[in-house]
């Protein structure tokens, strides 16, 4: 084993190769016409990277941990002669490495399914209502949750079922609400069941998942491509809004940025930033604020909107807050703000089923008018999708 496998640039490889041949910092510096301190810094950087993976011969560490993990501690056992005879390596998940691996898997998923480059499609020729915006609201989809009907008493759910159901739901709603010039695909958070490959939420709660993270990333990348392309066939402009949930706050970041990159050559697609857990848009006389709905009660949501969106509040007549998290529809009118949570398509998993949670499963599309706020809405139930 060598430090070379932990180098990420050609310069690092050159220095490490010379260092492993026994050359000192000064000798390497003279050969490369640089300072010995820069040589030392490179060696220390690569050694540190290797140590995180469990490789440090000078410390008798030669048992490396898998990619996306790093060493938390090492216990080495020595015999009477002072020679190592055994070693126990403790490791933890490396979140940065997991995110990097997730990005690579996401890109690989695109390249496997398509040619790798998006080709803009022709906008629909039919006249559309420029005052209308169709909001397709995806509430807590939990794409890779695993639900087994004999255990939950409800329906089965896995990655394949979840993508099939959502494609059918969006198709039906787009067919019903396609008169609007603009369509917005609004993911209200928790689109994925787990935040990383350790199969836990961001808080660290273990969850039942279907599929390895790499496969899930491939599925979700292709799924959003299909959904947005379907909307582009009907609407002249498409917005993508990914709200960060409590199950997948980090995963939703890479999903959003990859979709932005993928559709960069499509002027008809607008991807909203989701670095904050709050996002909003104005549509004529209407203000819509979105938040997942975790860690904050109804009164707190109202106070946050009136405080943080005071300027937008002042120039609009109709104000809405859309949120998810609770897996069923609720409506509250509070001080001029319409707060609404939306139904979900996924069934309760084992934990929620055992705790008595459950509700009607559906997906909704709300049509907003620039002058009158909510104009109409459509809903499709799970019974029409399976």
Strand content: 15-25%
Assembly type of the chains comes to single chain
Helix content: 25-40%
**How much is the radius of gyration in Å?**
26 Å
Average pLDDT for all residues: 86
CATH level-3 fold name of the largest domain: Purple Acid Phosphatase, chain A, domain 2
Which structural class fits the helix and strand makeup? alpha/beta
Sheet with most strands: 6 strands, mixed
Spatial order of strands in the largest sheet: 6-5-4-3-12-13
How many E-type strands? 13
Q: What is the rounded distance between the termini?
A: 53 Å
SSE order, one letter for each helix or strand:
HHHEEHEHHEHEHEEEHHEEEHEE
Walk me through what this model shows.
This protein has 386 residues and is an alpha/beta fold. The protein folds into 2 domains: 3-52, no CATH class; 95-384, Purple Acid Phosphatase, chain A, domain 2. The protein is 34% helix and 24% strand. The chain has 11 helices and 13 strands. It has helices at residues 10-20, 25-32, 36-52, 95-113, 149-152, 159-177, 213-232, 251-262, 298-308, 310-314, 350-354; strands at 69-78, 84-93, 129-138, 180-187, 237-242, 269-271, 279-283, 286-291, 318-323, 330-334, 337-341, 362-369, 373-381.
Secondary structure: elements and pairs:
Blueprint: H1 10-20, H2 25-32, H3 36-52, E1 69-78, E2 84-93, H4 95-113, E3 129-138, H5 149-152, H6 159-177, E4 180-187, H7 213-232, E5 237-242, H8 251-262, E6 269-271, E7 279-283, E8 286-291, H9 298-308, H10 310-314, E9 318-323, E10 330-334, E11 337-341, H11 350-354, E12 362-369, E13 373-381
Parallel strand pairs: 3-4, 4-5, 5-6, 8-9, 9-11
Antiparallel strand pairs: 1-2, 3-12, 7-8, 10-11, 12-13
